[in-house]
C-alpha cells in the first residue's frame, strides 16, 4: 500500500485552516472598510458655504472676528446689550453660523460660536464655562440650533445663575434641560417650513419651558437657514431667502433681549 507523504498530510492538516483564516481575514477587512465608510458618512460635518466664509473673512471696523481654540468670536467695536453664546447643530461646523453671528454683532452683541468636539454639542455641553471664564465681566444669553439648543438648555438648567436667558433655533429642551422654574427669559424660534425638527419633540419640550416663553415663527423659513451650510437631508425648501431668515432671527432675538434680558455687564 502506498504511504501518504508528509506533504499530503499538510494538505489536510495545514492548508485548509490557512485558507479559512485568509477568507475570514478578508471578510473582516471588508466589514472594517464598510464600517469605516459608514462612520465617515455619518460623522462628516456640514461645511460652511461661501456666504459663511465671506462673513468670516470680511474686514470691518464695527466687528472683529476673534478665533480661539474652542470658539469663534464676533466682537463689536461698541457693545450694546447681552452677549450671545451659540451652540451649533449636530455635525455642523461652527463657522456655518457666521452670517447670523456677524449680523448680531453689528447690533452690538458679542457673539461666541462654540467649537464642539466632533461637531457634537452632546460631547461638551459645558463648554460655555470656558467662555464665561474668559469674559467674567460680560453677561451672556445661551442657546443653540437644533441639537445645540437642547444642550444649551441643559447647561442653563444646571447653571441658571451663570446666564441671563436661553434661546432656541429650531430646537427645544428635554427633561435634563428643564427651564420651567429657572426664572430665565426664553425665546423659541422655528421656521414654518422646517423639515428636520420633529414637531412632537417641539411640542413635548414646551412642558419644560416657563409660561412666559416667547414663541416666534419665521414664516417661510426652514431648518438649515439659521446657518449657512447648504440643505441637510430631509429639510424643506425655504420660501424666503437666507438673508431674510437671518434678519428676522436677529430682529426677534434683539427685541427679546432688549425687553427681557438684563444686558448690563457683570460686576459693574
From TrEMBL:
Residues 83-247 form the Alpha/beta hydrolase fold-5 domain. Keywords: Hydrolase, Membrane, Transmembrane, Transmembrane helix. GO terms for molecular function: hydrolase activity. It comes from the Bacteria. The chain crosses the membrane at residues 20-40. InterPro entries: AB_hydrolase_5, AB_hydrolase_fold. It holds the Pfam family Abhydrolase_5. This is Dienelactone hydrolase. It comes from Paenibacillus peoriae.
Amino acid at each position: 500500500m502506498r504511504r501518504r507523504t508528509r506533504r499530503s498530510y499538510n494538505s489536510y492538516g495545514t492548508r485548509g485552516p490557512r485558507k479559512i483564516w485568509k477568507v475570514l481575514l478578508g471578510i473582516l477587512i471588508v466589514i472594517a472598510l464598510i464600517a469605516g465608510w459608514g462612520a465617515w458618512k455619518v460623522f462628516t460635518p456640514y461645511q460652511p458655504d461661501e456666504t459663511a466664509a465671506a462673513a468670516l473673512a470680511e474686514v470691518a471696523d464695527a466687528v472683529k472676528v476673534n478665533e480661539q481654540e474652542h470658539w469663534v468670536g464676533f466682537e463689536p467695536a461698541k457693545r450694546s446689550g447681552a452677549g450671545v453664546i451659540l451652540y451649533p447643530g449636530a455635525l455642523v461646523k461652527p463657522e456655518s453660523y457666521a452670517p447670523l453671528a456677524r449680523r448680531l454683532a453689528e447690533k452690538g452683541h458679542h457673539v461666541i460660536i462654540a467649537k464642539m468636539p466632533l461637531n457634537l454639542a452632546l460631547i461638551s455641553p459645558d463648554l460655555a464655562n470656558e467662555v464665561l471664564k474668559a469674559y467674567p465681566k460680560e453677561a451672556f444669553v445661551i442657546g443653540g440650533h437644533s441639537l445645540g439648543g437642547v444642550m444649551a438648555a441643559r447647561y442653563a438648567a444646571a447653571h441658571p445663575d451663570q446666564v441671563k436667558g436661553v434661546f432656541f433655533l429650531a430646537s427645544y429642551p428635554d427633561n435634563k434641560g428643564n427651564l420651567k422654574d429657572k426664572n430665565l427669559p426664553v425665546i423659541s424660534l422655528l421656521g414654518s417650513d422646517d423639515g428636520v425638527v420633529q414637531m412632537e419633540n417641539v411640542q413635548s419640550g414646551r412642558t419644560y419651558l416657563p409660561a412666559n416663553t416667547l414663541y416666534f415663527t419665521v414664516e417661510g423659513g426652514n431648518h438649515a437657514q439659521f446657518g449657512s451650510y447648504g440643505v441637510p437631508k430631509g429639510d424643506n425648501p425655504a420660501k424666503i431667502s437666507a438673508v431674510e431668515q437671518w434678519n428676522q432671527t436677529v430682529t426677534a432675538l434683539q427685541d427679546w433681549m432688549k425687553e427681557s434680558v438684563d444686558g448690563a455687564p457683570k460686576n459693574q
